[in-house]
């Protein structure tokens, strides 16, 4: 991990400063209370910022929010803000949210995922993003990191919040990962586009590999991007097992395709006929009555590659049989501008007509935009 703030001596110095800060108001025997965990987390973040400020100007700032509301009256236990003290406490510049709970993470995993997804929605309403980071702590001091995406949440245990004056391997792992957040999040905050520059900012997985956990050398790898195609090289311990999923590039979204190629109206209709055909085939199903409804037709889910249409992002779809054709527990699923009347009216009925209505709305908007831009 190199020297400087990541060195063992520096990390132990942060842990000692954290301990000196919180020991005056808490006792280690009381550390399993939610309030005490919040105090320890805030003391740790303050100690980290004090150490980093010795090296350079801080580009992130910790805010303890468990006793105060955000502007929309939500109350995470803590947040990391981009651009340090220049920004007020608001979701627009938040890049990570923290939640501390008085229970075990396993028992609360579903609710925590939902809460962190909700935090991402809060952030995205002010600054669109394709992922955000979350952290949760339990009554036992376990700290987890979450990669929160619009339709999926990935998580992993990091270690434990430091309680004593000298950190063990699990506590050192937590401090090192939090230090890494301060280093990487200003560069890769998860925004769909960099503010003021319009540059897409992907997070490369190799930025985190080898940091999480006490056995830092068990996994190493890197991602190389060449002309949009990714090749992945990795070296793993032979005892470890895992999966690597490679997806074919499915082209540009329909908006980008139109802006770059400016197809005429008949080409657009031909492409949209391909989208309709894909939805029709999926909804028609097979001889056993098995079928799929998409339920989230939007501009970003319709792609074009080599003039061929692709429908992607079926994560919100219904995969069922004919007997279940009208069943839908989630009555408001989709992207608001393209929701059909029945969905907006919160009807539980679902059929192909809902996807077709969304497709029609998207076609209409696209053709109107085509006319205005061409004029």
SSE layout:
Elements (H helix, E strand, L loop, with lengths): L7 H15 L11 H19 L7 E5 L13 E5 L11 E7 L4 H20 L7 E6 L4 E8 L2 E9 L8 H16 L34 E8 L2 E8 L15 E2 H8 L3 H20 L5 E4 L8 E4 L2 E4 L6 E4 L19 H4 L7 H23 L1
Parallel strand pairs: 3-4
Antiparallel strand pairs: 1-2, 2-3, 4-5, 5-6, 7-8, 9-11, 10-13, 11-12
Helix pairs in contact: 1-2, 1-4, 6-8
**Radius of gyration computed on alpha carbons:** 24 Å
Calculate the mean pLDDT score and round it: 75
Distance between the termini: 57 Å
Contiguous runs where pLDDT drops below 50 for at least 5 residues: 196-246
Proportion of residues in extended strands: 15-25%
In what order do the strands lie side by side in the largest sheet? 1-2-3-4-5-6
Number of helices: 8
Roughly what percent helix?
Answer: 25-40%
The main β sheet shows up as: 6 strands, mixed
- The geometry reads as elongated
The succession of helices and strands, N to C, reads: HHEEEHEEEHEEEHHEEEEHH
Number of strands: 13
- Structural class of the helix and strand makeup? alpha+beta
């Amino acid at each position: 991990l190199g020297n400087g703030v990541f060195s063992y001596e520096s990390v132990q110095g942060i842990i000692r400063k954290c301990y000196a800060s919180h020991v005056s108001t808490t006792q280690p025997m009381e550390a399993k209370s939610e309030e005490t965990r919040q105090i320890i987390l805030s003391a740790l973040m303050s100690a980290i910022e004090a150490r980093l400020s010795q090296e350079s100007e801080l580009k992130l700032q910790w805010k303890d929010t468990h006793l105060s509301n955000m502007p929309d009256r939500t109350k995470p236990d803590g947040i990391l803000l981009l651009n340090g003290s220049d920004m007020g406490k608001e979701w627009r510049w938040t890049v990570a949210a923290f939640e501390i709970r008085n229970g075990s993470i396993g028992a609360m995993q579903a609710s925590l995922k939902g809460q962190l997804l909700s935090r991402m929605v809060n952030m995205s309403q002010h600054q669109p993003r394709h992922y955000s980071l979350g952290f949760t702590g339990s009554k036992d001091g376990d700290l987890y990191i979450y990669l929160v995406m619009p339709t999926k949440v990935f998580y992993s245990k990091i270690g434990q919040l430091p309680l004593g004056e000298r950190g063990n391997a699990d506590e050192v792992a937590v401090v090192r990962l939090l230090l890494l957040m301060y280093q990487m999040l200003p560069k890769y905050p998860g925004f769909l586009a960099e503010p003021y520059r319009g540059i897409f900012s992907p997070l490369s997985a190799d930025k985190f590999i080898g940091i999480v956990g006490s056995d830092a050398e068990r996994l190493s790898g890197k991602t190389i991007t060449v002309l949009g195609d990714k090749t992945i090289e990795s070296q793993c311990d032979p005892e470890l097992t895992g999966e690597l999923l490679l997806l074919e590039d499915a082209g540009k979204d329909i908006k980008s395709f139109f802006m770059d190629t400016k197809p005429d109206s008949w080409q657009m209709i031909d492409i949209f006929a391909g989208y309709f055909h894909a939805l029709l085939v999926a909804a028609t199903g097979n001889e056993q009555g098995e079928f799929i409804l998409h339920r989230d037709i939007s501009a970003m889910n319709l792609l074009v590659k080599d003039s061929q249409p692709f429908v992607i992002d079926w994560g919100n779809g219904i995969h069922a049989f004919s007997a279940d054709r009208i069943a839908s527990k989630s009555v408001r699923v989709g992207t608001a501008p393209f929701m059909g009347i029945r969905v907006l009216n919160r009807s539980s009925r679902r059929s192909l007509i809902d996807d077709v209505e969304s497709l029609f709305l998207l076609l209409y908007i696209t053709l109107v935009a085509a006319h205005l831009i061409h004029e």
